[in-house]
Amino acid sequence: MRVLLHAPTADALARARSNARNLLARQPDAEILIVTNADGVTEAIATRDAATDPMLRICENTLRTRELTAPASIATVPAAIETLVNLQEDGWIYVRA
Q1: I want to staple 7 with a disulfide (CB 3.0 to 4.6 A). Which of 12, 65, 77, 83 is the partner?
Q2: Host H or E run for residue 19
């Protein structure tokens, strides 16, 4: 199972992190990515979570437009929209958190 959680807001990021933890508790072999853009990026930088930060993919477009820098320990993607589309084309299940 490959699940793609989209978190474009601070509240959505909190839900995505919770969803990821809950899903892994029930489906330990699940692959999960959390793609964050817009206000979700600011929240991802401000609030760290050791359990879910490795799943995060922060939008570089948002970083650039908001003049932010992602922590070195969190992966980035050039554009959240492109990543969301490409992963769905590859069979990932999309969930808007």
Answers
A1: 12
A2: helix 10-26
Look up tokens 């590859």; give the residue.
90
Number of domains in the chain: 1
Pick from 4, 5, 78, 18: nearest CA to 47: 18
CATH number, domain of 49, equals 3.40.1260.10
CA distance 44 to 86: 22
Helix (H, G, I), strand (E, B) or coil at 31: strand
Global pTM value: 0.96
Q: What is the residue range of 73's domain?
A: 2-96
pLDDT digits (tens, 9 = 90+) for 16-25: 999 999 999 9
Token pair of 20 as six digits: 């990821």
